[in-house]
Specification:
Elements: H1 9-13, E1 19-25, H2 29-39, E2 44-48, E3 51-53, E4 61-64, H3 68-75, E5 80-83, E6 86-87, E7 90-92, H4 96-104, E8 111-115, E9 124-125, E10 140-146, H5 154-157, E11 158-159, H6 161-168, H7 178-186, E12 200-208, H8 213-223, E13 228-233
Parallel strand pairs: 1-8, 1-10, 2-5, 2-8, 4-5, 9-11, 10-12, 12-13
Antiparallel strand pairs: 3-7, 6-7
């Protein structure tokens, strides 16, 4: 597979004119969120249903628990980031039902993009029972995995390594081979948890560079036709 630059992500996804996109999994979720915010056209609302760094605003207009009138006015001026307030270094997520309500109003917004999972900056994970927090009307789920997790020891590179190993059928001290990563990405106990049949599911592999390209190709082959996959070129500082 041929990796694409981050600034070609939205075009590569071939998205529809109205989407509610939920981003789950490991490394690259916040970068993906802001990349889509800069690339999608129309009225674009970015948010989270979990937590994110309070300082992570992408230099966007940021609203905390806005009234609909204020949100409508802000969206008329460009892409907006919405949170449920901040406490110290963490911003709180909004209720997924609120995301559904925003998306249901075609006069308010064209695209809602949601960071719907947390991984504490680790490149891969498997979810706990309360994760991820995907709005019910999500049209597309993007499952992120950092290519830097592939071939590395699970307990060193993964968030919730016991769960990753359990889904992959191995031990936390084992390496995350492309086969094991594909097993987690394809599992309803893994990256497909909470993904309804009507939702499009796309694996987004971030941090792809020459050193890990062979492993990413092996991951793509393991996934086969079970999931769409897009690889993103690693760009330091992006």
């Amino acid at each position: 597979m041929v990796p694409v630059p981050l600034n070609h992500l939205a075009a590569s996804l071939r998205l529809g004119p109205r989407e509610l996109i939920s981003i789950v999994g490991g490394g690259g979720k916040t970068t993906t969120l802001f990349a889509l915010g800069s690339q999608l056209t129309g009225r674009v609302l970015l948010t989270t249903t979990t937590k994110m760094g309070a300082a992570q605003t992408g230099r966007l207009m940021t609203l905390d628990s806005p009234e609909d009138g204020d949100l409508r006015a802000a969206l008329a001026s460009g892409t907006v980031l919405v949170r449920n307030g901040a406490d110290g270094h963490k911003a709180h997520g909004v209720d997924p039902v609120v995301c559904d309500r925003w998306f249901a109003d075609a006069s308010l917004v064209d695209h809602v993009v949601v960071e719907a999972d947390g991984a504490r900056r680790q490149p891969f994970k498997a979810p706990r029972p309360f994760e991820p927090v995907i709005p019910a009307t999500t049209t597309t789920v993007l499952a992120c995995i950092g290519a830097d997790a592939l071939g590395r020891v699970i307990m060193d590179q993964c968030f919730r390594p016991m769960r990753v190993a359990a889904v992959a059928g191995c031990r936390p001290a084992d390496r995350l081979t492309p086969q094991r990563a594909a097993a987690v990405l394809s599992s309803e106990r893994g990256s497909r948890k909470g993904v309804a049949p009507a939702m499009r599911f796309v694996v987004v592999v971030t941090k792809v560079e020459p050193a890990n390209r062979t492993l990413v190709d092996e991951l793509s082959a393991e996934l086969g036709g079970s999931a769409e996959i897009i690889a993103i070129e690693y760009a330091p500082g992006a």
